[in-house]
UniProtKB/TrEMBL annotation, chain A:
Protein name: ABC transporter ATP-binding protein
Source organism phylogeny: Bacteria, Bacillati, Bacillota, Clostridia, Eubacteriales
Source organism of the structure: Dysosmobacter segnis
InterPro entries with a match to the protein in the record: AAA+_ATPase, ABC_AA/LPS_Transport, ABC_transporter-like_ATP-bd, BCA_ABC_TP_C, P-loop_NTPase
Keywords carried by this UniProt record: ATP-binding, Nucleotide-binding, Transport
SUPFAM superfamilies hit by this protein: P-loop containing nucleoside triphosphate hydrolases (SSF52540)
GO MF: ATP binding; ATP hydrolysis activity; L-isoleucine transmembrane transporter activity; L-phenylalanine transmembrane transporter activity; L-valine transmembrane transporter activity
One CC-aspect GO term: plasma membrane
Entries under Pfam families matching the protein: ABC_tran, BCA_ABC_TP_C
Domain ABC transporter: 25-273
KW Nucleotide-binding (keyword) present: yes
GO biological process terms on file: D-alanine transmembrane transport; L-alanine transport; L-isoleucine import across plasma membrane; L-valine import across plasma membrane
From TrEMBL, chain B:
Chief location: membrane
An example Gene Ontology molecular-function term: branched-chain amino acid transmembrane transporter activity
Membrane topology: Multi-pass membrane protein
UniProt keyword Membrane, yes or no: yes
InterPro entries: ABC_transp_permease, LivM-like
Record's protein name: Branched-chain amino acid ABC transporter permease
GO CC terms, sorted: plasma membrane
Keyword list, A-Z: Cell membrane, Membrane, Transmembrane, Transmembrane helix
Location within or outside the cell: Cell membrane
Record's keyword annotation contains Oxidoreductase: no
Parts of the chain that traverse the membrane: 12-31, 43-65, 72-90, 102-123, 130-151, 194-214, 245-264, 276-307, 319-338
């Protein structure tokens, strides 16, 4: 369905169509220690420019910690993150976002008192240029840029059929719509890599199916890479091209969905070791 | 949809401006007609100052969501800077209106600097630290101004810092034509009072214009996003420190302008006037009017400034009644039954809730 994964010199695998282009993300020996506890250790991963990648693992494996390292919510204690070839060392969360990583959160973090549209336009702040003075005195640059932002916000919202909710407070949206809005907000920052932290959590099967369609649609429309953490194996196996399995902060397997499903180490991590009789 | 939303927000903003204009016209008419007694007329300028203070503090507390307990400190900086500017320009700028404008701009500038000095290091922290530091700042400003002795003669400004406590105006070495402006703990001396209700009205309108337009621009969105969720705000590429500082310093500048007007309303004013109680008083206006609710701040500031005056007949029990009224109003405004009752009664109120 996706074309096959091929190994690259570093030992990682990325989709065949992304070969020859610089990978969007390359983590080298990434790790973080919290007071002696190695939450993530020796994490190596390469993601192709238009790949949909999955990060899975049992609870507490360190999946969200990896996202927090990539977005600099935590500073890695060792290792390197190359985002499109650029070292993100010393960048803040905001700078990493401007460099191209956008994310959603496991526990939804919307701006509840802002409207749906404002939640999207606020994410375009980095692309807007008008100064505080132009904003206060309503100079022409204010009207021009606000109009562009408004139109772009509606366009992004219409991808998820949410344009009619533009003036509703984000906090009063139903759960599924809040999850979708978080994705739209992340997209509004023009990312080249989108991190989705459990996008299907709390969704019913039909919502999940719609979400899968949407994730593919995002990749095809924007030609960006997407990495997602998800416990819904049906979703992961269906849309991810490359999958990385974490357990106790370490990568225990990498490969295509078929390889991962039949990997004995992965099965052991999820189900436990079969006792010898 | 969008068109309706814009007009809705605009309706609320427009009513806020309109309400202020009506308040101004009615009060002017009443005082012209001689209906208002002297104490009420004397309150008009302070009401405008407090309205402006409340709206500007609402920017920090309601819109940015950071607790500041030193707003009177910025008012103090603005007041004394404004009085010094006005008094030293007595001969150069004979027009009272122009002098008042200059004084308010100078007050705002000095408060801006003070806001920046306090805000830049502190706003990197989160939570209650800002409240504690701003509280300390207010007290420090009070003590510093108490040490200040300032005079003006044809040679320019004479400034003396009375740290030892044994210096007086005589030590300034003013010439015969010189005037003392600030006499240490005695505060400002024989200030030519040029503040007027019209100036106060203009100040409130300018404050409203700045705060409302800032709120409905990219900066305002970022500031409100920060209030709602800090981590998410930085995850969408927003420099949180920059926007925090922007809101805090703007708020300080507006308080400085209000302070300058306040200072020029009294022939003598002590630094002790701008103490912790004044900061809390302004905070009460903001909380009572509703966090983030601009017109609420205006109404609360006006009502709570007039109330103690209106309660004079209770004599010794005045502050007790004042406190009881405060508690009752708080209870009433936070009662769900009453809230829904008012929402049904006034379509405008419902609109505000959705648009705010």
């Amino acid at each position: 369905m996706f074309g096959k994964l091929v190994p690259v010199p570093s030992g990682a695998v990325i989709p065949e169509r992304d070969i020859g282009k610089r990978p969007i993300l390359n983590c080298i020996n990434l790790g973080v220690t919290f007071g002696g506890l190695k939450a993530v250790d020796d994490f190596n991963l390469m993601i192709g420019r238009t790949e949909i990648a999955g990060l899975i693992g049992p609870n507490g494996a360190g999946k969200t910690t990896v996202f927090n390292l990539l977005t600099k919510v935590y500073q890695p204690t060792h290792g390197t993150i190359l985002l499109d070839g650029q070292d993100t060392h010393n960048m803040t969360t905001a700078q990493v976002n401007r460099a191209g990583i956008a994310r959603t959160f496991q526990n939804i973090r919307l701006f509840n008192d802002l409207t749906v549209e404002e939640n999207v336009t606020v994410a375009m702040d980095a692309q807007m240029k008008y100064s505080m003075v132009s904003g206060i005195f309503r100079l022409p640059s204010f009207w021009k840029e606000e109009k562009v932002a408004h139109e772009r916000a509606l366009e992004l919202l219409s991808l998820f059929h949410m344009q009619d909710l533009a003036n509703v407070k984000a906090g009063s949206l139903p759960y599924g719509a809040q999850r979708r809005l978080e994705i739209v907000r992340a997209l509004a920052t023009n990312p080249s890599l989108l991190l989705l932290d459990e996008p299907a959590a709390g969704m019913n099967p039909s919502e999940t199916a719609e979400l899968m369609e949407n994730i593919r649609k995002i990749r095809d429309t924007f030609q960006i890479a997407i990495m997602l953490i998800e416990h819904d194996m049906n979703l992961v196996m269906n849309i991810c091209e490359g999958i990385c399995v974490l357990n106790f902060g370490r990568v225990i397997a990498k490969g295509s969905p078929e390889e991962i499903q039949s990997n004995p180490v992965v099965i052991e991590a999820y189900l436990g070791k079969q006792k010898e009789a | 949809m969008k068109q309706r939303k814009i007009s809705k927000t605009n309706v609320v903003n427009f009513s806020t401006y309109l309400g202020m204009v009506i308040f101004f016209l009615v009060m002017t008419a009443l005082s012209k007609a001689g209906v208002l007694n002297r104490s009420m007329t004397g309150l008009l300028v302070p009401i405008c100052c407090y309205m402006s203070m409340a709206v500007s503090l609402n920017l920090t507390v309601g819109i940015l969501g950071e607790l500041s307990l030193g707003h009177a400190g910025f008012m103090s900086v603005g007041a004394f800077a404004g009085v010094i500017a006005s008094q030293s320009l007595l001969d150069v700028v004979p027009s009272a209106g122009l002098r008042l404008t200059i004084a308010m701009i100078v007050g705002a500038l000095f408060a801006t600097v003070a806001g920046f000095i306090v805000g830049a290091p502190v706003l990197r922290l989160q939570g209650d630290y800002l409240a504690i530091v701003t509280l300390a700042f207010g007290e420090i400003i009070k003590e510093l101004v108490t040490c200040l002795i300032v005079g003006h003669d044809e040679n320019g400004l004479h400034i003396l810092f009375n740290l030892t406590g044994n210096k007086t105006v005589e030590d300034l070495g003013l010439s015969d034509t010189g005037i003392a402006i600030i006499k240490g703990a005695q505060g400002t001396a024989s200030v030519k009072t040029i503040a007027s209700f019209t100036a106060g009205f203009i100040l409130v309108m300018v404050t409203l214009f700045i705060v409302l337009n800032l709120k409905h621009s990219r900066a305002g969105r970022a500031i409100m996003a920060l209030r709602d969720n800090r981590i998410a705000t930085s995850s969408i590429g927003i420099n949180t420190t920059k926007y925090k500082l922007m809101a805090f310093v703007t708020s300080a500048a507006l308080a400085g302008a209000a302070g300058a007007l306040y200072g020029l309303n009294y022939s003598s004013l002590q630094a002790a006037k701008f103490n912790f109680n004044t900061s809390i008083l302004v905070l009460v206006f903001v909380v009572l009017g509703g966090l983030g609710n601009i017109w609420g701040s205006l109404v609360a500031a006006a009502a709570l400034t007039i109330l103690p005056e209106a309660l004079r007949e209770f004599a010794d029990y005045r502050m007790l009644v004042y406190a009881i009224v405060l508690i009752l109003v708080m209870l009433a405004t936070h009662n769900p039954t009453l809230q829904s009752f008012f929402a049904r009664l006034k379509p405008g109120k419902k609109e505000e809730k959705e648009a705010a």
